[in-house]
Amino acid sequence: MKHLPKYIRPRWRYLAVGIESTPAAEIDRGTFQRELWYAAGNLLGDPGSAAADLTVYSFSFADGAGETMLRVRRGETDAARAALACVDAIDGEPVGLSVRGISGTVRACEERYLGRGTGRFEQRHVAFADADRPAYARDEAVEVSMPTGFVSATELDFE
Amino acid sequence: MAGFYEAVTAYPEGTSTVSRYAKTAASQGYDGLVVRTREAAYDPAAIGDHYGIDVVEGIEVDAESPDSVAGSIGNFREACTLLLVRGGTNALNRYAVEQDRVDVLTRPMAGNGDFNHVLARAADTHGVRVEFDFGPVLRERGGQRVQALRGLRKLRELVEQYDTPYVVSANATDHFGLRAPRELIALGEQIGFSAAQIETGLAEWGRLAARNRERTDESFIAPGVKRGRYEKDG
To answer: Which domain holds residue A31?
Structure first.
């Protein structure tokens, strides 16, 4: 079909969202999109989710941290924030999403809010809870591997 | 938008340490953090200075019956800045709202807990804040979430009618569960709160902490009383 004329095209907003999870998490684009649409549908209902759109435009995730850009219809950004808040776990691993910024164009969004590549995890051993445990450290954040899962700490806890 | 705080459950009860919470909360724009866990080992001043956030020592009393709560209040009131009592049954809710020494009644609508106009008035009289717990709304689905939303609605209508003081929290048990203030405000608006209500609820933690710190300060005499020269009458 032919594209719509400019005066009737939908107006979009692009949300830059930071993703944080444990070292064991492996999230791919498809899974993330599905979880997001699921959360939006549950909170806003099918009509609300359709109104907001929430399509993943770009996505990258590795080593427990990542970022994504979402397309949201103009006027629905608050509903989109609420839907994002309700995504709490993907594939069993806890996940924290936070909106870094909103922009009217893809390019401005990328330039201002995305492209912050965090480094790779550095594997170490730390003394925690009366034992020596393997840990993953990056940017002051330290994930300690315990028998029951990961405990999240920072370098301050080991000084 | 000023002075937003969040209250969190830290290691060993939760799975994130206080400093990791502070790091995440500071990057999300919070001005302060209230720690609910008594067993957590942390240095509030060091963490606060490093991440630029106010770390408040709190204790959340989680007991089975009003008698054990009474004992805990006596033991812990001097040991913390904010004293929270976990609700969730009618007996606990009824007891906690009558105590002047209690600062916040947390998750009153959880489990079998209920709230009514008598409790709302009592909470206002004794200065006990009720907590709007957004945890189940954020983390549950289906029937559990609907129950939680019903509880929040009932509590909100009572709070609005009787002017009961309140706080708002996402009740995180790990730092992934923290949500930035704007996200909480957006979620609150979706479920029937106004943005102003969420903002007030998040800032109330900070107001409480400041008030309690002032009261335990050495220079404090009594509410409204201060040392100084006599004011000359005109």
So the answer is: 11-113
| Residues A61 and A137 grouped into a single domain | no
Interface check for B187 against chain A (CB to CB < 8 A): the answer is: yes
Say if B137 is an interface residue toward chain A (CB within 8 Å).
yes
Residues A85 and A130 in one domain: no
Full DSSP string of B48-109? HHHHT-EEEEEEEE--SSHHHHHHHHHHHGGG-SEEEEE--SHHHHHHHTT-TT--EEE-TT
pLDDT, tens digit (0-9, with 9 covering 90-100), for B72-111:
999 999 999 999 999 999 999 999 999 999 999 999 999 9
Task: Dump pLDDT digits (tens) for A81-109.
Answer: 999 999 999 999 999 999 999 999 999 99
Q: Please indicate if any CB of chain A lies within 8 Å of the CB of B115.
A: no
Q: Are residues A56 and A128 in the same domain?
A: no
Q: For B186, which of A82, A141, A150 is closest by C-beta distance?
A: A82
Residue B234, pLDDT above cutoff 90: no
Candidates A17, A67, A78, partner chain B, best to mutate (most B CBs within 10 A): A78
- Pair A72, A105 in one domain: yes
State whether A98 and A146 are in the same domain: no
Supply the ipTM of this predicted assembly: 0.92
Tell me whether residues A81 and B19 touch, CB distance under 8 A. no
Chain A's closest residue to B25, CA to CA, is A98
- Give pLDDT tens digits for B102-136: 999 999 999 999 999 999 999 999 999 999 999 99
Looking at the DSSP bridge assignments, the partners of residue B7 are B34
Pick B5-215's CATH classification: 1.20.1250.20, 3.20.20.140, 3.90.1150.10, 3.40.1010.10. 3.20.20.140
Total structural domains within chain A: 2
A60, A128: one domain: no
Asked if B20 and A78 come within 8 Å (Cβ–Cβ), the reply is no
Statement to judge: residues A109 and A142 lie in one domain: no
